[in-house]
């Protein structure tokens, strides 16, 4: 492939007439140019960890804390405490600094294992996960029917072919 | 109550037996959700590229609602108030909140010091349940939640919780000076707003690069900018050099983040093997297309893992990089004025309205860009 872009066709038109754009330049601030030194701070941060902290939310679930912090933050989420094998891996990951692969790669692994734990959890509660619905394929059916039907037929054909192949092999 | 439930990559559902949120801290409020969105950055969670996204989580960091319960020390908002809730959870007291860095609060996320607390955005962002539910717990209710003005359309209000301020801050961090050429990578909702807001800072030329023609057409009309489809360019970096007197753009904005297409290596390492904090193609293009001494502004979301960023070019070209999650609360007063004066019309970008019950279809629609999807809004049955 050759790039046939002609520079002459793309003159860099600066300035120009922008009055048709509503609000053009209203928030213009020549001082907001970070390539020149600027500082607009309260210098709070140089005082270190000294602010008047909000009240501590009661820690009545397991919260994994970053080793880069002195404490658990005043508030935190309580959505899904660590549990099972994925939880054990997450606990291990939190021994490492946020700047370490030791922290993040185990978490990625834990996330994958957690998916299987989710299946078991669902089934143990008597619900069999409906993959078709959870993947939102109804939308595919609604907005992309043709390609969806094609894909489904292809998948069904391949599955059938695979099963026939397996049956034939086991007969041999 | 009804709430979205994450079951693993590409699998979510709406469950009716999700527990009601409770007041867990004296500064909490419980909000009945009226509108909530699926955000492009939710797709990073949905696709499984953000570590510590636990099965059973409720996503959703863009929502508005009515306060139905407040903790004992909440003073500024009361039951019955209709509020927009910034996506960042911020205490208002720590060293960073005092600098108006509400996206970087140090008292909202025990799991990480880099990321702040964000509603429904994995345990790496604090482990909070999000707003894609009928009810949601909102911590620090006196800091973030802002009462929606009487005259404001709820559809505009919900976009002020993330999309508009993030796009605005992307442009602001670009340090745009009068007449600057600004290139925005990504024509999703944030890229659209970044392009629109670039004019407010006095840009002389605004260019948007994306791979979907329908999004490019939309942003061209909405933000009155130039648009180019990178799949039709041999090399977007060369193209931008050519169209900017061979010097490069003054400001480049990365409004894509870790889901960027267009580079096999990045896709393999970042999106498939998860060894990078996502695919960094958009950031590569931004760094390489900006002029020497120029500014790259990043609002696209990347995972915490290191990434292959062309740092040598950053050094050699003397580029300033600015990046952050938007500090929504800081921008809200000005943005409310802009909406009032018709300078920004956020709700125009809403392309789909979907009942919360059909959240799985909503995610699939957003993820695969079906039906020219730009911004879906979810509406709970109790809204
Ligand atoms: Zn968002
Ligand atoms: Zn704070």
Could you characterize the architecture of this molecule?
The complex is a heterodimer of chains A (172) and B (383). Chain A has helices spanning 84-93, 101-124, 131-134, 137-143, 145-171. By secondary structure, chain A is mainly α. Chain A is flat and about 80 Å long. Chain B folds into two domains: 3-162 and 327-379, Quinone Oxidoreductase, Chain A, domain 1; 166-323, 3-Layer(aba) Sandwich (Rossmann fold). Chain B is globular and about 60 Å long. Helices cover 27% and strands 23% of the residues of chain B. In chain B, the strands form four sheets. In chain B, strands 3, 4, 5, 8, 9, 16 and 17 form a seven-stranded mixed sheet that branches. A six-stranded parallel sheet of chain B has the order 12-11-10-13-14-15, with helices on both faces. Chain B has a two-stranded antiparallel sheet with strand order 1-2. Chains A and B meet through helix 2, helix 3 and helix 4 of A and strand 2, helix 4, helix 6, strand 14 and helix 11 of B.
Features:
heterodimer, A: 172 residues, mainly alpha, B: 383 residues, alpha/beta, Quinone Oxidoreductase, Chain A, domain 1, Rossmann fold, 2 domains, 7-stranded mixed β-sheet, 6-stranded parallel β-sheet, 11 helices, 17 strands, 27% helix, binds zinc ion
Q: What are the SSEs and their pairings?
A:
The complex is a heterodimer of chains A (172) and B (383).
Chain A: H1 84-93, H2 101-124, H3 131-134, H4 137-143, H5 145-171
Helix pairs in contact in A: 1-2, 4-5
Chain B: E1 3-8, E2 11-15, E3 29-37, H1 40-46, E4 63-70, E5 82-85, E6 88-89, E7 117-118, E8 135-138, E9 146-147, H2 154-159, H3 163-173, E10 181-185, H4 189-200, E11 205-210, H5 213-223, E12 226-229, H6 236-242, E13 249-254, H7 264-272, H8 281-289, E14 290-298, H9 311-317, E15 320-323, H10 328-340, E16 350-355, H11 359-368, E17 375-379
Parallel strand pairs in B: 10-11, 10-13, 11-12, 13-14, 14-15, 16-17
Antiparallel strand pairs in B: 1-2, 3-4, 3-8, 3-17, 4-5, 5-9, 6-7
Helix pairs in contact in B: 3-4, 3-10, 4-5, 6-8
Bound molecules: zinc ion (ZN) (2 copies).
One zinc ion binds at residues 90-91, 93-94, 96-97, 105-107 of chain B.
């Amino acid at each position: 492939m050759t790039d046939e872009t002609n520079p002459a066709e793309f003159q860099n038109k600066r300035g120009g007439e922008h009055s048709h754009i509503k609000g053009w330049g209203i928030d213009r601030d020549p001082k907001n140019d970070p390539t020149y030194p600027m500082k607009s701070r309260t210098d709070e941060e140089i005082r270190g960890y000294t602010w008047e902290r909000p009240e501590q939310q009661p820690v009545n679930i397991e919260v994994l804390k970053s080793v880069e912090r002195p404490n658990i933050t005043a508030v935190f989420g309580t959505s899904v405490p660590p549990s099972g094998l994925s939880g054990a891996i997450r606990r291990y990951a939190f021994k490492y600094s946020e700047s370490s692969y030791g922290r993040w790669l185990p978490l990625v692994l834990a996330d994958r294992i957690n998916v299987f734990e989710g299946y078991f959890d669902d089934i143990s509660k008597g619900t069999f996960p409906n993959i078709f619905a959870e993947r939102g394929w109804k939308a595919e059916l609604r907005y992309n029917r043709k390609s969806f039907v094609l894909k489904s037929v292809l998948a069904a054909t391949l599955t059938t072919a695979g099963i026939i192949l397996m049956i034939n092999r086991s007969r041999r | 109550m009804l709430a979205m439930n994450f079951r693993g990559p590409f699998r979510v559902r709406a469950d009716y037996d999700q527990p009601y949120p409770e007041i867990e801290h004296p500064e909490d409020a419980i909000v009945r959700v009226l509108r909530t969105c699926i955000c492009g950055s939710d797709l990073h969670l949905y696709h499984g590229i953000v570590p510590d996204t636990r099965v059973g989580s409720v996503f959703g960091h863009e929502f508005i609602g009515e306060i139905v319960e407040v903790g004992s020390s909440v003073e500024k908002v009361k039951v019955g108030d209709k509020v927009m809730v910034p996506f960042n959870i911020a205490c208002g007291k720590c060293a960073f909140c005092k600098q108006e860095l509400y996206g970087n609060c140090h008292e909202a996320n025990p799991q990480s010091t880099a990321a702040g607390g964000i509603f429904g955005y994995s345990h790496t962002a604090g482990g909070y349940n999000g707003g894609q539910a009928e009810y949601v717990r909102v911590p620090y209710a006196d800091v973030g939640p802002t009462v929606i003005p009487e005259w404001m359309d709820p559809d505009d209000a919900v976009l002020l919780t993330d999309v508009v301020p993030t796009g605005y801050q992307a442009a602001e961090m670009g340090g745009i000076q009068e007449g600057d050429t600004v290139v925005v990578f990504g024509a999703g909702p944030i890229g659209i707003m970044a392009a629109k807001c670039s004019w407010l800072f006095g840009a002389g030329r605004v260019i948007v690069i994306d791979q979907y023609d329908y999004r490019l057409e939309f942003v061209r009309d909405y933000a009155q900018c130039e648009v180019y489809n990178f799949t039709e360019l041999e090399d977007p970096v060369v193209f931008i050099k050519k169209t900017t007197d061979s010097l490069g753009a003054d400001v480049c904005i990365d409004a894509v983040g870790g889901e960027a297409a267009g580079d096999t290596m990045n896709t393999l390492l970042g999106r498939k093997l998860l060894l990078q904090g996502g695919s960094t193609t958009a950031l590569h293009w931004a760094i390489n297309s900006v002029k020497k001494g120029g500014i790259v502004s990043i609002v696209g979301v990347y995972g915490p893992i290191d990434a292959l960023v062309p740092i040598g070019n950053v050094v050699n070209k003397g580029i300033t990089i600015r990046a952050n999650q938007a500090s929504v609360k800081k921008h809200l007063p000005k943005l409310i004025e802009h909406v009032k004066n018709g300078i920004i019309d956020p709700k125009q970008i809403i392309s789909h309205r979907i009942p919360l019950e059909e959240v799985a279809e909503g995610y699939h629609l957003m993820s695969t860009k079906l039906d020219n999807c730009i911004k879906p809004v979810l509406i709970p049955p109790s809204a």
